[in-house]
Write a structure and sequence with these properties.
Helix content is 72%, strand content 0%. By secondary structure, the chain is mainly α. The mean pLDDT is 91. The protein is built from 20 helices and no strands.
């Protein structure tokens, strides 16, 4: 065999001849996500593996997401509802529900932020999506990746890729998306409001909360029991103080490993063939509408609560009602301090922030119960 024939045969075995314009576009999208993670610091724990997974998925001839491929095996944990509850276990172990218990009224702010879910749901139906597809798209507005994945797997598994990527991307872009909405809907005087210090919360309250929440929510909305159950189990391990090793494992090793597997395999669903479609663009746009609507809903209820309380509630904490924990609460703190450097809203914002986690799970449970 001539050398030229050998070289041509080798060239055919590479991915160079199979590279298409769509692959280049999606590789570029993956590189943008990597840039945002590495250079801009936007939730690198999520965007880095998602972006790299997108790059891997669009390199031709690798077979990485084909049957028997490495990421296809990892994706098993996504499509069989294993990873989302495990993520919730770690989130629960890292979450302090104290601010919510100290000021239970902030639960309403977490509920108000779910309005974006239903705005997007109605918009998706207008665009021709089925009710189950629309419900899955709407959950993006909760800014809760595990809940979005869990809901989509049950209602519209064929949309899992774009919905999961949209949910995690918007979670990562909270510092860009929320502040303009928050400033638009509030006055300078409202943003400068300093809230009173929260009351101390007893250990008994913190231990009873996850137990009672699990029982009540699971009885009312059985389909969401795996998410709520593991969220509250993680929190109980944190607050009980008798299983410190398990709590630390859930907060660190377990959630880190599962995040790598989940985010990388989700990113690997971003192949050009399935992603570069009108439907995907519509889902991305609807997800943004849902997220913006949720932010606005929380802020507007915060304004109402401020009026009812005689000016004691800073409306900025309402934006934390979306469940991007703790990023959304940090954004409330940052926006508030720009107007008043002596203003410390973080702990106040954590109340609606953790309420948003519960609120999004409840919204998902309602949809799963109605549409099963």
């Amino acid at each position: 065999m001539k050398l030229s024939e050998v070289m041509y045969s080798l060239l055919q075995d590479t991915g160079l001849l199979q590279l298409r314009a769509g692959n280049v576009v999606m590789i570029s999208v993956g590189l943008v996500l990597l840039y945002l993670a590495i250079k801009r610091g936007f939730e690198p724990l999520l965007l880095m593996p998602i972006g790299f997974g997108a790059v891997l998925a669009n390199l031709p001839a690798t077979g990485i997401m084909a049957e028997g491929g490495l990421l296809r095996f990892l994706y098993f944990g996504v499509e069989h509802e294993i990873f989302p509850p495990l993520i919730f276990l770690g989130v629960g172990a890292m979450t302090d529900f104290g601010p919510l218990l100290a000021n239970p009224s902030t639960l309403l702010l977490g509920a108000a932020a779910q309005i974006g879910v239903f705005i997007s749901l109605m918009g998706a139906q207008v665009l021709g999506f089925s009710i189950k597809e629309a419900a899955s798209i709407g959950i993006i507005g909760g800014a809760d990746g595990p809940t979005a994945i869990y809901t989509t797997i049950k209602l519209a598994p064929h949309l899992l890729g774009p919905i999961a990527v949209a949910a995690y991307s918007y979670m990562s872009l909270v510092p860009l998306i929320q502040p303009p909405i928050m400033r638009l809907l509030t006055t300078t005087a409202e943003r400068r409001i300093v809230m009173e210090q929260l009351r101390p919360v007893s250990k008994r309250e913190k231990v009873l909360f996850p137990i009672l929440s699990t029982i009540v929510i699971s009885l009312l909305l059985p389909p969401i029991a795996p998410l709520i159950g593991l969220l509250m189990l993680g929190n109980l391990m944190r607050e009980a103080g008798v299983v410190e090793r398990l709590s630390k494992t859930a907060q660190n090793e377990l959630i880190n490993i599962v995040t790598i597997f989940l985010a990388t395999s989700v990113g690997a669903t971003m192949d050009a063939e399935s992603f570069l479609t009108l439907r995907t663009i519509e889902i991305i746009v609807l997800g943004l509408v849902a997220f913006a609507g949720g932010t606005a809903g929380g802020v507007l209820l915060g304004k109402l609560m401020n009026w009812l309380s005689g000016g004691k509630i800073n409306p900025l904490i309402g934006s934390a009602g979306v469940s991007a924990v703790p990023m959304a609460a940090r954004v409330s703190q940052v926006v508030g301090q720009r107007e008043n450097p002596a203003n410390f809203l973080l702990m106040h914002a954590m109340g609606p922030n953790v309420a948003g986690v519960i609120g999004t799970a409840v919204a998902a449970g309602v949809m799963l119960s109605l549409l099963k």
